[in-house]
TrEMBL record:
Pfam families: HbpS-like
InterPro entries assigned to the protein according to its UniProt record, in alphabetical order: GlcG_carb_metab_protein, PduO/GlcC-like, PduO/GlcC-like_sf
Domain of life: Bacteria
Source organism of the structure: Rhodocytophaga aerolata
Name of the featured protein: Heme-binding protein
């Protein structure tokens, strides 16, 4: 289970990393059911990335895989090619979504959007590491 306190701790770590990379981000945390627990839009973060961050978190939890890994396997000829069209278009196949695990079990996910794929991944990883 991910509590609001857990989500706030993860978001705080992600916000700190976003500050270090100099890019305001949208950061979303979902629970084991893929339901939003908490979201923050840092000052100056793109409004268009709100939905993307939430959907990156949902995608990571829905498939228990990082969106970066899913994206690598969703290219033409890949085993998950076309997956982005499933789930009414909620599936994100670019970096920034990471499952959150406790005692080896996925209990939620973080989704980050607002920078380059590399920046989103770094910020999401910092949040996941704080979990």
């Amino acid at each position: 289970m991910i509590t609001l306190q857990d989500a706030r701790r993860v978001i705080a770590a992600a916000e700190e990393k976003a500050g270090q990379v100099g890019q305001p981000m949208n950061i979303a945390i979902v629970d084991a059911g893929g339901n939003l627990v908490a979201h923050v839009r840092m000052d100056g973060a793109w409004v268009g990335s709100i939905d993307i961050s939430i959907n990156k978190a949902f995608t990571s939890r829905a498939f228990d895989i990082s969106t970066k890994q899913l994206g690598e396997n969703a290219q033409p000829g890949g085993q998950f090619y076309g997956i982005h069209a499933s789930n009414n278009g909620r599936i994100m196949i670019f970096a920034g979504g990471i499952p959150l695990t406790k005692e080896g079990k996925v209990v939620g996910a973080i989704g980050v959007s607002g920078g380059s794929g590399e920046q989103d991944q770094q910020v999401a990883q910092a949040g996941a590491d704080a979990f």
